[in-house]
Amino acid sequence: MGEDVGSEMILRTFDHLLHYCELPIKRAVPLALAVMHISKPDFAVIDQLSRLSHDPDAEISQNAIIALGVVSAGTNNSRVAGLLRQLSEFYSREASHVFCVRIAQGLLHMGKGLMTINPYHADRMLLNGPSLGAVLVLLHSCFDLKNTILDKSHYLMYYLTSAMNPRMLITVNQDIEWQPTTVRVGQAVETVGQAGKPKRITGFQTHTTPVLLSSTDRAELGTEEVVSVCGILEGVVIVKDNPDYEPEEGK
Questions:
Q1: Fewer Cβ atoms within 10 Å of its own Cβ: the N or the C terminal residue of the chain?
Q2: H or E segment and range at residue 135
Q3: For residue 207, what are the β-bridge partners?
Q4: Backbone dihedral angles phi then psi of residue 111, each to the nearest 5 degrees
Q5: CB count, 10 Å around CB of 56?
Q6: How does residue 249 score in pLDDT terms, banded at 50, 70 and 90?
Q7: Is 194 left (phi over 0), alpha (psi -120 to 50) or beta?
Q8: 8 Å CB contact between 215 and 195
Q9: Is the peptide bond before 247 cis (omega within 30 degrees of 0)?
Q10: Which residues have CB under 8 Å from 218's CB, separation 6+?
Q11: Predicted TM-score (pTM) of this structure
Q12: How far is CA 125 from CA 140, 234, 239, in A?
């Protein structure tokens, strides 16, 4: 988890498990894919889960549908939304499958796309243990969907509330009053071990806070008028006037 190269390598391993392993192990593969990509709708993972959601085995397809919801949780991803609408029609006569689709749709549009359940924060360097535990409660209950979420233990879904976090960046002043600030938002670039001051984001766009950040985005201040108290721009950030800022002449 939280390691890009390992996450890509493990996709191949899961492919082998689906080809050569017995049914109980195959049923766990969609859930394992979901753990690796929580609130991070990767194209290859969604493609794999989409195939598994049409599997002849009911438990594999149900797990794949819920995994689609976990992978896309709070992102409003249009591709996943389309897949879930198709699955709703495909399984219209299967009550259990329709219930799983509704759960996945609820996760996808969580907080109208303003929330995330990704346990990594602080530039994906720190792991929030209770947040990961909450997601694992849901995924462990999926090992026996028939007797948990599809039966009388559907309240286990409430555990997800401890994993929910807003995924917007909001800047406030030292009195905790909202202060619109110019920020650059772009794809995060790994700069560990590089000499000098390499650019930490690429393909950025300039916005005024509040802005939404996806799981692979990083934000930087786009003006020298203010400085942030915290080195990482995520969630609610306190900014203060830069004492060294000198406005350019003629402006």
A1: C
A2: helix 129-141
A3: 183
A4: 60, 30
A5: 6
A6: low
A7: beta
A8: no
A9: no
A10: 123, 185, 186, 187, 188, 189, 200, 201, 233
A11: 0.88
A12: 25, 12, 22
For residues 190 and 202, the answer to whether their CB atoms sit within 8 Å is no
**C-alpha to C-alpha distance for 63 and 220, rounded to whole angstroms:** 38
Residue pair 224/251 in contact by the 8 Å Cβ criterion: no
Q: Residue 94 phi/psi, 5° resolution?
A: -105, 105
Q: Which residue matches tokens 């960046």?
A: 169
Q: Coil, strand or helix: which one is 113?
A: helix
Phi (first) and psi of residue 38, to 5 degrees = -70, 125
Burial class (CB in 10 A: 0-12, 13-18, 19+), 136: middle
181-198 average pLDDT score = 80
Task: Specify whether the CB–CB gap between 156 and 163 falls below 8 A.
Answer: no
Return d(Cα 52, Cα 117) in angstroms, integer.
23
Amino acid letter for position 13: T
Helices 95-108, 58-71: axis angle to 10 degrees equals 10
Say if CB 159 and CB 175 are below 8 A apart: no
**Residues 222-242: b if buried by 16+ CB within 10 A, e if exposed:** beeebebeeeebbeebebeee
- 213-240 tens-digit pLDDT: 887 888 888 888 888 888 888 888 888 8
Q: Which residues contact 193 (CB under 8 A, 6 or more apart)?
A: none
**Joined tokens for residue 201:** 């984001």
Give dist(CA 25, CA 4) in Å, integer: 24
Closest to 36 (Cα-Cα) out of 72, 75, 71: 71
